[in-house]
Amino acid sequence: MKVEKLLIIGGVAGGASAAARARRLDETAEIILFERGPDISFANCGLPYHIGGVIGEREKLLVTSPEMMRRRFKIDIRTQTEIIAIDREKKEVVARNLANGKEYRETYDAVVLSPGAEPLRPPIPGIESPKVLTLRNLQDMDTIIQRLDGTKTTAIIGGGYIGLEMAEALVERGMQVCLIELAPQVMAPADPEMVTPLHQELIKHGIDLRLKTSVTAFAEVDGQLEIELSDGKPLLVDVAILAIGVKPETKLAAEAGLELGKTGGIKVDGHMCTSDPAIFAVGDAVEVADYVTGLPALVPLAGPANRQGRIAAENIFGRDTVYNQTQGTAICKVFDLAIGMTGLSEKAARRLELPYEKIYVHPMSHASYYPGTHPLSFKLLFVPDTGRILGAQAVGADGIDKRIDVIAVAIRAGLTVFDLEDMELCYAPPYGSAKDPVNYAGFVASNALRGDVALCHVDDLQHPAAGQKLLDVRTPREVSLGTIPGAINIPVDDLRDNLGQLSKETEWLVFCQVGLRGYLACRILSQNGFRCRNLSGGYKTWTMSVQ
Questions:
Q1: How confident is the model at residue 76 (pLDDT cuts 50, 70, 90)?
Q2: Which residues belong to CATH 3.50.50.60 in the chain?
Q3: Is domain 5-116+247-316 classified as CATH 3.50.50.60?
Q4: In angstroms, rounded to a whole number, what is the distance separating the alpha carbons of residues 148 and 173?
Q5: To which H or E segment does residue 176 belong?
Q6: Residue ranges matching CATH 3.40.250.10 in the chain
Q7: What is the per-residue pLDDT across 239-296, written as a single tens digit (0 to 9) for each?
Q8: Pairing with 443, which of 179, 358, 386, 547 sits 20 to 30 Å away (CA)?
Q9: Topology given in CATH for the domain delimited by 455-545
Q10: Could you tell me whether strands 376-382 and 389-396 are parallel, antiparallel, or unpaired per DSSP bridges?
C-alpha cells in the first residue's frame, strides 16, 4: 500500500528522525508532525549542562526549528498541538490546538508514535508544590533556571543520569546540593562496586549524599521547602528537583487499543510496527528486546530512538529494515569522572540466573610515563565456557568512552574475550598503551578460560571456605596501608624462597593491589603443586566492593 499521508505524533529524537527520513524516501507524501510543545527537536541530554552554565547559549540546544523543517523538508509542522485520540477504524486522529482549545480530525495512511517518556511523580504528600520541579524539555529547563535565581540550597531526589548531571550542574552554579537516593547506590543500572568512585567524587565536591533514604513528604514552610525523609531527619531547601526515573508515555496508545508489552511500553515488532499495521512507534515509549538476553526492556536513550525513527520511516515507505535490538550503551559524566556501560550487568545476570564469569582490571588511561594519565577501573562479563562477551562497565577520569565503545562493537559482532587479546587499537603515549585496557581485559579473561589461573572474587574472600586461607603478595609497605583481614603476607618477589611456609593441604586465595602480581604468584604456586586462586582486580576491587 502506498502511503500518501503520514502523521508523526511527537518530535525530538524519534519523531524528528522519522519525519526527515520519510521525506528523503518520498518527495510527494504529505507528512504532518504534531508536537505538544513549541520545539520539535532539541538536545534534551544537554539540558542540565545549560542549567550549569557549561552550554551558555540556549539556542545551541535547538537541533532544528519548525521553520527549518518546513522549508528544507516540506513537512507540515504543528506545534502546540496535542493528539488526544486515535480512531483506528476510521484512520483518523483527534487533534487539539493548545493555543485556542479547538479540536479537529486528521486522516492518515500511517502513523508514527513518538510520545517519549514522562518523569515519575509518585503520590508523595506535597509533591505538587511549585518548588518540586522535574526536567523533561526546554520549558522545564527555563522554569528551573528561573526558580534557582537567588536560591542557595537544593535537593535532588534520584541518583540516575538526570540526578547526577543536575547535581553537578547545581554545584557549578555555586549551590549547596543534597542528593537523595532510595537505593544503596547511585546509577542503578551499574554494579555496586563500580559506582563507589562516583560516591567519593560526589562527596569530594561537597554534595550531601543520602543513600538508602526516601522522601515521605514535602511541605512549604516560611517560603522554603521542607522534605521529610525516611531516616527521620527533615531537610530544608529552597527548591527540589525530582529525578527518580521516567515511565513510557503510553496513554494515547493504550486508549487506542494498541498492545502494550510486559514492561509497560508500547509493543512493537522488529519493523517498529505496533499491533496495528498502520501504526508504528519509536523512542522512549516502546518496549525493546535486550540485545544480550533477548528479553523485553525499556531503554530510554537518544541513540536507539534516532535509529528507530529512521527504521520506522523506511518500513512505512516500502523498505524492509529491522531494528536490531538495544544493548544499552551509555556514559555519564560526574564531575571529573565518567562511568560507562554496555550490555549485561552482573546484577542483571544474577537476577536472570544466567551463567557468567567476570574479571576486573585497573590500568592507566594511557602510557603511565606520559603526563596526564589517570587510573580507570574496568569490569568485563563473559560466558564461562565460550568466552562470549556479555557486558562491560568502566569508571575513571579519561578514556572511558573509547573502551566501552570497543566492547559495544565486540558484543554486536559476537566476539569473545580471546578476540580482545588480538585487537589492534590506537596507540601513542598520549592516548593509550601498547597493551590497551581492552587487550589487558582480554588477556586476564583468556588466562582464566585457558586454565592458566583460577579466579576468585570478593565474596570468596569475605567468606573463605574450610581449607582456604588468604595470601597477600604485596610489599610490607602496601600491607601497612591496609589489607584483607586474616591474610598472611609474603611478597611475590620472595615467594619462591618461602614456599615452605605454605601448606599444600590449603587452597590459597591470593591477592595483590590490582591482580597482576597475584597472577604471577599463582603461576609460581600452581607449578609447585599448590592449589590457589587469584582475586580478580586485587585489593583495589576489594576496597571498591566492601563499604
A1: very high
A2: 5-116+247-316, 132-244, 336-450
A3: yes
A4: 9
A5: strand 176-180
A6: 455-545
A7: 999 999 999 999 999 999 999 999 999 999 999 999 999 999 999 999 999 999 999 9
A8: 547
A9: Oxidized Rhodanese; domain 1 (3.40.250)
A10: antiparallel
Q: If you write DSSP's letter for every residue of 131-177 in order, what string do you get? A: TEE--SSHHHHHHHHHHHTT--EEEEE--SHHHHHHHHHHHHTT-EE
Grid coordinates representing 351?
Answer: 537476577
Cell of 87: 480512531
Given the C-alpha cell 542528593, which residue does it identify?
179
Count of residues for the chain?
547
Short-list 261, 325, 252, 304, CA closest to 7 = 252
Q: For residue 94, give the H/E element and its range.
A: strand 92-97
| pLDDT reported for residue 43 | 85
For residue 182, pLDDT over 80 is answered with: yes
Exactly one of 45, 178, 273, 456 is catalytic; which is it? 45
Cα dihedral 385, 324, 394, 430 sign? positive
- Sequence-separated (6 or more) residues with CB below 8 Å from residue 481: none
**Helical packing angle, 516-526 and 538-545, nearest 10°:** 120
Give start and end residues of each alpha helix (H) in 271-345. 302-316
Is CATH 3.50.50.60 the classification given to domain 336-450? yes
Q: What is the mean pLDDT of residues 491-501?
A: 97
Q: CATH says 132-244 is which class?
A: alpha beta
Catalytic status, residue 512 = no
Greatest CA separation for the chain: 90
